[in-house]
Amino acid sequence: MERLQAENAAIEARVAQAKQAQLTPNGANTVDPLTQLKADYLQKSAVYSNNHPLMKALKRQIDAAEKSAVPAAPNQVGLESLQSQQEAIQKNLEVASAKLSAAQLGEALEKNQQSEKLEILEQPAVPQEPVKPNRPKIFAISLFLALAAGGGLTLLLEMLDTTIRRSADIFGIVDRQLVVSVPYIVTKGEQLQSKRRIGLYSLLL
Fold this sequence. Notes:
- The protein is mainly α.
- The protein folds into 2 domains: 2-111, no CATH class; 135-204, no CATH class.
- The protein contains 7 helices and no strands.
- The longest helix is centred in the middle third of the chain and has 33 residues, at 79-111.
- It is rod-shaped and about 155 Å long.
- The protein starts with a helix and ends with a helix.
């Protein structure tokens, strides 16, 4: 990030020099790039140390210009080429900025112990039977409730039924002294049928 920022600042200075040279008629009073770079280096040395990335970038540019056989004047350097270099540096600077932000976020997560490594100690087992619902239990409860409801309904109907079935039911309606037991009266037809049945049993024996 620091290196790209320094290169971006340096290329911006060169673009400004090239634009200024184009405004100067016939290239008069133009300043040699090496001279301008040295002037910038001297000016910024009052503010930055020699180890600063900007100062290092200027130093590299000065060394490159000194190695050139014929120093190029600002008006001889293509402005479009400088602007292309500036765009490339700015794109790289954006990428580096994004990476730096991601690295800073990761470092902050590690410091706050929010970034933890997960390790699987045992593989999860697939259940062979459904955990819920418990069908046998539901069936047993349903059967019990059905039987209880049926028994309760039968008891309720029995309590509400007023049909006379026993002598005790009559005593609840009529005075006991008025109730007389009548013995069973056997008819002649029943007597003859009984005699025939006895005779038939005797012949079979």
